[in-house]
Amino acid sequence: MKALQDKIRQEGIVLSDTVLKVDSFLNHQVDPQLMYEIGLTFAAAYADAGVTKVLTLESSGIAPAVMTALALKVPLVFARKQKSLTLRDDLYIEQVYSFTKQVASEVAISRKFLSPGEKVLIIDDFLAYGEAAFGMARIVEAAGASVAGIGIVIEKSFQEGASKLREAGYRVDSLARITALSPEGIAFAE
Ligand code: G4P
Ligand code: NA
Ligand code: NA
Description:
This protein is of the alpha/beta class. It contains five helices and ten strands; from the N terminus they run αββαβαββββαβαββ. The strands form two sheets. The chain has an eight-stranded mixed beta sheet, sandwiched between helices. A two-stranded antiparallel ribbon has the order 1-2.
């Protein structure tokens, strides 16, 4: 997606060879026009996939996910993160380990908002090691629903998440695919 790639080139800050800061349009301040275009792009890619629900993880996935849900005319559910959750039978709960933050958290969704037979489009802002996406996919499958695909705003292709998800059989659609981060700049996949 050209507008996204241009925005990353203009405003993205390379913090290290593995971390890109995009807090001026995605992770802190949000560019609604760009989020709207992102939503339209995901919705077009999944127009014929029978999606009944969009799922993301709080907090930075919500902006692109709500625009995608708007364009697909389906509800959005965001999984909530908690440090430690006592077992509750009204929730689906999965463990998600963050390699970036080196912390494990539990993500939870109310059973009310995910039903057997649903086709779920998972959306997230970043894809690094794929832990968040795999955690959401496990919740979808535990509910007896299926994953229509995984839509990612910024994929860091040099980390293993995208290839692991595809090897596991998931459809992954990333709007920007970064192959390298360095002080000289940001390299995108063709
Ligand atoms: P994974 O799910 O793909 O395995 O990624 P990881 O655990 O490493 O990601 C942990 C958090 O860091 C996530 O945000 C993710 O979006 C974010 N993240 C990963 N790589 C980058 C990066 O290069 N730049 C930025 N800005 N963020 C990155 P989170 O903890 O869920 O926070 P939130 O922003 O959604 O609240
Ligand atoms: Na984030
Ligand atoms: Na995220």
